[in-house]
Amino acid sequence: MEAKRFHTIDDLMAWPSDERVELIDGEIIQRAMSRFEHGLAQSGLVEETIPLKRLGGPGGWWIVPEISVRYTEHHCPSHDLAGWRKERLPQRPSGVMTLAPDWVGEILSPGHERKDTVTHFLRLQRAGVPFYWIVSPEDRVLIAYALDAGCYRAIFTAEGPDETAAKVRIPPFETIEIDLGLVFGRL
């Protein structure tokens, strides 16, 4: 019996660029097809965090969508959104990131929920990513986690249509208000 071959970051980098793939625990997997709800939630979070991107130094962030982060030789996902504090990363980065983010936001896609709610959750927890948000646009749910003694603990939850009118302050972005209506696609 032949042993399973684990793909590496080199395999990922050599993959045809016209395919949307990422490296998850040694396996190159296809990324979910983009849906309007996913894009709306993603762009809503980008819009709401723009004030943080404009700040230099303390309080400033690099926040980008669809960013590949290399955690190990066999694990390099493309996060829906990820952010680094400018005090930790003062110069504009480029390419595939090798420094773990300070915040990751994933937007659930049908058929790929396990990847975001289990695989990424455990991997980011082990990597020491301080904040992890999961957004389900179809259910209008946002759950924010923070590391506490090496384990994620839910620090904020919003659920349902009543939340679409809320403006909230969620760590690590408590210096700004986030309009959940923009995130959840309020009409």
UniProtKB/TrEMBL annotation:
Pfam families referenced in this protein's UniProt entry, alphabetically: Uma2
InterPro entries in the record: Nuclease_put_TT1808 (IPR012296), Restrct_endonuc-II-like (IPR011335), Uma2 (IPR008538)
All residue ranges annotated as the Putative restriction endonuclease domain in the record: 10-165
CDD domains: DUF820-like
Name the UniProt record assigns to this protein: Putative restriction endonuclease domain-containing protein
